[in-house]
Each structure stands twice: as structure tokens, then as C-alpha cells.
Design brief:
Elements: H1 2-30, H2 35-47, H3 49-60, H4 64-89, E1 92-93, H5 96-116, E2 121-122, H6 124-146, H7 149-164, H8 170-207, H9 211-223, H10 225-236, H11 240-265, E3 270-271, H12 274-296, E4 300-301, H13 303-325, H14 330-358
Antiparallel strand pairs: 1-4, 2-3
Helix pairs in contact: 1-2, 1-8, 2-11, 3-4, 3-8, 3-11, 4-9, 4-10, 4-11, 4-12, 4-13, 5-11, 5-12, 6-11, 8-9, 10-11, 12-14, 13-14
Length: 359
């Protein structure tokens, strides 16, 4: 029954997010919003609704490790797994705005989270600061979109000409249907989050694994399924801005909105486990920083870089599993990663970034 509840909760989360994104995306398109803005806001925020639903539910239930693990694990999963898998399918072009504005903001929010967690807790005051920052970031994106007003107006004018030939009342019915998608999506997310959190806790107890590890792996991957589907479909359809913007926007949203509102609404804020502070949050920061040289190299995420990201996610997950079980091979695995793999990767990325800057 626990596993049935787990799968049912995950299905409701995915269906709810898909419904929410579908309605929000169509409304945004009808308003003439540029694709990059759709990826950074409507799609990114929409696909991150499972994270906020699960983290809020976990924080209010006193499951701080699950709430923090969900945010940190989702951000690591988004970059290494989703961007890696998308780039393996097709090289991803990266816009200048993402390289010079949004990715540095993703790195900055990761640093801010690390600093706030140094005392072992994201306080309600910290949560208020994070929530205020997501509002400012959204307003900034809207302002950026206004610079592309000419193209947006042309698209809106074309839509209006198409609507003029539609039967009377069809536009109103379209809005009603899209708003219904939004409402249905929110309802499914709330119910799915409750089932998902309760079953995840039961599975953690059955497997003898800590809630932090469950949050970093199973819950993080599960709540990121909408991002996986959205980015892969966007990549296949050639909507590269949406594919990459979805990941970057989701990571910023996870820290500022998901963690921010969880800390703001939870009595006493959200406690941060020493294990997360010593290892997982620094890994999340390192992953965000690693995007900078890769994105600088010709504004393109090549297939080999996608394989690199994907391989690192497999290594990170394997480390969590070995560490949770205190496996005998953990010291050797850690030594190989720390002495050879990570330094060689860092040197390669630095050289690539230097060459790109020279060009």
C-alpha cells in the first residue's frame, strides 16, 4: 500500500503539473509573451509546483530534512540529469541573457542559500528575504520582456486576426478551459504532494535510509519529472530557450520561492542538517558554477558536455547510496572522484572557458 500511495502521489504530481503548465503556457502565448520568458517564468514556475507543494507539506509536517533535500536534490537533478539528457538528444543553444544574467543569478541564489544555512537553519526572516527576491526577479523578467515588445505585438496581432475569424464566444471558452486547467492542476498537486510525502517517509523507514537521502534522490527526482518531460519535449521540438530556461528558472525558483515560502510559513523556519550543509549544498553550488564555463563556450551545451553532466549525476547518486549504506567501497570511490575525476573536469572547463573568452 505504501508503494501504491507513492506511485499514485507521483502520478498526481505529474498530471497536476502538466495541467498547470498547459493552461499557463497557453494563456502566456495568447498574451504574446516571448519564449525565453515563458521558459524562465510560466514553464519554470509551473513545473516547480510539485517541489513547492512537497516542500511546504514536509515543512509544515516538521520534516525539515525532506523539505531541504527536495530543493537541493531537485537543483542538482535539474542541471546534471535534465540538461545533460537534453544535450545528449540535441546540442542546446544558450541565449546571451541566460549566460550573462540568469545563470549568474542561479549561482548567486545558491551562494545565498549556503550563507543563510551556515547557522543550521533557514529562519522565517531568511524565508521572507527569499520570497521577496523571487518577486523582484519576476518583475525583472517582465521588464526584460518589454524590450522585445515589437515581436510580441506582432505575434499578438496575428493571434487577434486569427481570433477574428473564430466563432463568437470561442475566445471566452478558450480562456475558461485554460483557467480550468490551472485550477485542476493545483488541486491535483496538493493531493499528490500529501500522498507523496507520507509514502516517502514510510519508504525511508522501511529501507532504513535517512529522510535527507530520500529527499535528495527519490523525492527530488520525482518532483522534477515535469521538468524532465518539458525540457525533453522542448528540445525535440527545437524550443531550446524553453528547455534551458526551464532548468535555470526552476533552480532559481526552488531556492527563492520553494525554500523561501517553506521557511516563511513553517514555525521556527526550516532546519538544515549538518550533512546537507557539509556536502549536498556545496555540491549544488558547484553544479551551478560549472554551468558558467560550459555556457560560455560558444553559448552551446554540446553533446559531450551533456554526457559529462549525466555521468556526474550518476556518480553523485551512487555516492549517496554508498554513503547511506556505509559500503566498503565508499572510501575508494570518494578518493577516485576527489583526486582524479573532479580536478580533471575542473581543469578542462577552465581551459574551455579561457579559450572561449579569447575567441
Amino acid at each position: 500500500m505504501v508503494w501504491i500511495l507513492f506511485v499514485a502521489g507521483l502520478v498526481l504530481l505529474v498530471l497536476g503539473a502538466e495541467s498547470l503548465v498547459r493552461g499557463a503556457s497557453k494563456i502566456a502565448s495568447a498574451l504574446g509573451v516571448p519564449p525565453l520568458l515563458v521558459g524562465l517564468t510560466v514553464v519554470a514556475y509551473g513545473t516547480s509546483t510539485p517541489e513547492i507543494a512537497v516542500s511546504l507539506q514536509a515543512a509544515l509536517a516538521g520534516r525539515a530534512d525532506l523539505a531541504v533535500g527536495n530543493v537541493v536534490g531537485s537543483n542538482i537533478f535539474n542541471v546534471l540529469f535534465i540538461l545533460g539528457l537534453s544535450a545528449m538528444i540535441a546540442p542546446l543553444l544558450v541565449s546571451r541573457q541566460l549566460v550573462w544574467i540568469d545563470v549568474p543569478l542561479m549561482v548567486g541564489t545558491s551562494v545565498l542559500m549556503l550563507l543563510m544555512a551556515l547557522d543550521g537553519r533557514i529562519s522565517r526572516l531568511d524565508g521572507g528575504v527569499l520570497a521577496a527576491l523571487i518577486i523582484l526577479y519576476t518583475l525583472f523578467l517582465v521588464r526584460q520582456a518589454r524590450k522585445e515588445r515589437a515581436a510580441a505585438r506582432e505575434a499578438a496581432a496575428a493571434d487577434q486576426r486569427g481570433d477574428a475569424a473564430s466563432p463568437p464566444g470561442s475566445a471566452a471558452r478558450t480562456w475558461v478551459v485554460n483557467l480550468a486547467y490551472l485550477a485542476a492542476g493545483l488541486g491535483l498537486l496538493v493531493l499528490g504532494a500529501r500522498w507523496f510525502v507520507e509514502s516517502s517517509m514510510a519508504i525511508a523507514r522501511l529501507m532504513g535510509v535517512s529522510e535527507l537521502v530520500i529527499g535528495l534522490t527519490i523525492v527530488a527526482a520525482g518532483t522534477s519529472m515535469p521538468e524532465v518531460a518539458t525540457s525533453i519535449i522542448a528540445t525535440i521540438r527545437g524550443e531550446r530557450d524553453i528547455a534551458v530556461g526551464n532548468v535555470v528558472g526552476s533552480n532559481i525558483y526552488n531556492i527563492l520561492a520553494v525554500l523561501g515560502f517553506a521557511a516563511l510559513l513553517s514555525p521556527g523556519g526550516v532546519a538544515v542538517a549538518p550533512a546537507a550543509l557539509d556536502f549536498d549544498i556545496p555540491v549544488m553550488l558547484a553544479v551551478a558554477v560549472a554551468c558558467l564555463p560550459i555556457f560560455f563556450t560558444g553559448h552551446l551545451i554540446a553533446r559531450w558536455e551533456g554526457w559529462l553532466f549525466f555521468g556526474y549525476y550518476v556518480a553523485y547518486t551512487l555516492f549517496l547510496v554508498l554513503s547511506s549504506q556505509q559500503h566498503d567501497s565508499l572510501p575508494a570511490f570518494s578518493w577516485v572522484m576527489g583526486v582524479f575525476v573532479v580536478p580533471l573536469t575542473a581543469i578542462t572547463l577552465i581551459i574551455l572557458a579561457a579559450r572561449a573568452r579569447t575567441r
